Amino acid sequence: MLELKNVVCRYGNVNALNDVSLSVEQGELVTIIGANGAGKSTTLKAISGLLNPVEGSIHFMGEDISRASAQHIISMGVSHCPEGRRVFPQMTVHENLEIGAYVRKDRSGVAEDIDRMYSMFPRLQERREQAAGTLSGGEQQMLAIARALMSRPKLIMFDEPSLGLAPNIVEKTFEIIREVRAAGTTVLMVEQNAFAALDMCDRAYLYESGRMTLHGTGQEMIRDPHVRQAYLGG
Ligand SMILES: Nc1ncnc2c1ncn2[C@@H]1O[C@H](COP(=O)(O)OP(=O)(O)OP(=O)(O)O)[C@@H](O)[C@H]1O
Ligand SMILES: [Mg+2]
Known about the structure:
Rossmann fold, 26% strand, six-stranded mixed sheet, binds magnesium ion, four-stranded antiparallel sheet
């Protein structure tokens, strides 16, 4: 479904990604782990068209999207839930959810999906008319996830979905991600919480300083001595 081949991304003259190759098959839950600054978010930005690779290629459903616009990539069915809860602060919760569906034309399906989001996140329903910028951090994170789902993506990318959430909400968030995948959406997830991410994924990639240094199934990665020592606390 998604294939990155020898991708290089640069900010100014600094390479943030060096020769990264990875793939995601339809229906998989794939995770990327790695230290701060390793290039995880940059990978998601390159896939969603927020950044163009200077070398290498990115294919989605057989189409070369290396130079495609973010708008086009969204319309192909790729949704990006970015790091740091980027909701539209002046708009209400409800309006943020509607905006998430702007690429869709089936208005009744959109209304149904908004109801589905409210039953997944009752907190959002209680606050549907509240300006998103005044939600708590955790509530904004829930809204960002719900909004990303509103486009009914084929592939959804989550960047640090558990960041800043209380433990019970982290659990709930991971549960929702598992549900999303069980419902047939392919998931690519970046996560600091390496154990949880490796435990729930099919396959994982480890990044170190802009390079992909190791990949395998989640369980293989959990057993790997280097991963254990450096990312799972021994
Ligand atoms: N807009 C930018 N301009 C310049 N450098 C950038 C920019 N965005 C990211 N970088 C640099 O690129 C490198 C990779 O950043 P990236 O955000 O992909 O890391 P990450 O793996 O997501 O890290 P974290 O776990 O901290 O979120 C870092 O060294 C970062 O400083
Ligand atoms: Mg990041």
